[in-house]
Amino acid sequence: MSALVHNYEPLHVVLSRGEGAWVHDTSGRRYLDLLAGYSALNFGHRHPALVAAAHTQLDRLTLTSRAFEHPLLEPFADALTRLTGTERFLPMNTGAEAVETAIKAVRRWGYLMRGVPDGEATIVVASGNFHGRTTTITSFSTDPDAHDHFGPYTPGFRVVPYDDIEAVRAAIDATTVAVLVEPVQGEAGVVVPTPGYLPALRALCDVTGTMLVLDEVQSGLGRTGTTLAAQLSDVHADLTCLGKALGGGILPVSGVVGRADVLDLLTPGTHGSTFGGNPLACAVGLAVVGLLEPGDLQERARTLGARLHNGLDELRRAGLLDAVRGVGLWAGVDVPDAWGVTGRSVCEAMAGRGVLAKETHGRTLRLAPPLTIRAEDLDHGIAILGESLESLRP
Question: Is 358 among the residues known to form the active site?
């Protein structure tokens, strides 16, 4: 028996190498990857520009800690804030760390700038959220698997229904320092809110003097057809959490971008990370920004996203899917409830046909191909999904 803790239940596929949208298992079998590491592999496996940046930096310097400076940190911050139209960047490692950083920043802002009594700050969050797995974040998760039996829970969060502006309005009071939501809920099944939701949140936060914090760890950096998903609604968050694709599928890189007057309150000694902003991370992060700056990958996500959703809608009209949701090159689909078939079963059937995807919450599948996927490969993946569903139809 392996010594590994069984906190995941992966498909029985042992991957050993990959390139672009394709991976191989240890027996040499080839698979099309339609998950892309939950968007961590937006640029595919081993993108040449990212691998080259990592190799070059590996031969120079990998880690300094923030006790010393290195020549890539400020250029990375400058490049990322230019790309996102923000003022400051605070680097971390994982998506959960980015969210925790944003929580700390808005609480500190509330105490020092808004006059909220110390220890009384509240943050409004949405049901169905997934922001990570730290003890603070799981405190306001509504997923029993992520939440239950990990208490005592961190106070200060008010959970309201997602995509319900009136519920947010009712939850805000003089202690509220922020509203924290995902512009698209990925783990929940790629749930896209109604078009007016984010603009209404922005307007409500402006009126109440509350920070709008958007978790774009999954939705950001090209996935939705724009650099940030919030740009689809012409909304500018006060703080935005980034991660996953920021590390190019090579190493964990995350952080928070946003307002200087908020992030500058995190002064020396108040927050930090040994690995945050390390030279290797900055080298890869700079290369990621370089890939996104021209905008062609965002356009590709829009164009191929339309192709993806058209193909999935055909499967829905054929009675093979109950629902199709998503935006850009990102989709959540529901297997017909009457079939009594799980999303896991569909993923296993797809894997048997050489295509990888991942289920979530029972009968839902998530599809997030690399933004670099070829159109014909995307069509192949959709066809295999259809074949797999047909094979399971009662």
Answer: no
Q: CB of 34 within 8 A of CB of 388?
A: no
In whole angstroms, give the CA distance from residue 229 to residue 214. 9
3-class DSSP assignment, residue 28: coil
Question: Counting Cβ atoms within 10 Å, is residue 287 exposed (0-12), middle (13-18) or buried (19+)?
Answer: buried
Residue type, 139: S
Residue 15: partners with Cβ closer than 8 Å, 6 or more residues away: 23, 24, 25, 26, 31
Residue of 76, 130, 140, 157 marked active site: 130
Tell me, what amino acid is at 313? D
The label of the residue with tokens 């009126």 reads 207
Q: What is the percent of the chain where pLDDT is above 70?
A: 100
Q: Which of 43, 89, 157, 215 is catalytic?
A: 215
Active-site residue, 296 included:
no
Residue-level pLDDT at 1:
74
The catalytic residue among 33, 244, 334, 377 is 244
How many whole angstroms separate alpha carbon 84 and alpha carbon 106? 19
- Lookup: tokens for 160: 């309201």
The answer to whether residue 192 scores a pLDDT higher than 90 is yes
Contact 385/355 with Cβ under 8 angstroms?
Answer: yes
CB atoms within 10 A of CB 72: 21
pLDDT at 153 over 80: yes
Q: How confident is the model over 316-364, as pLDDT tens digits?
A: 999 999 999 999 999 999 999 999 999 999 999 999 999 999 999 899 9
Q: Is 150 marked active-site? A: no
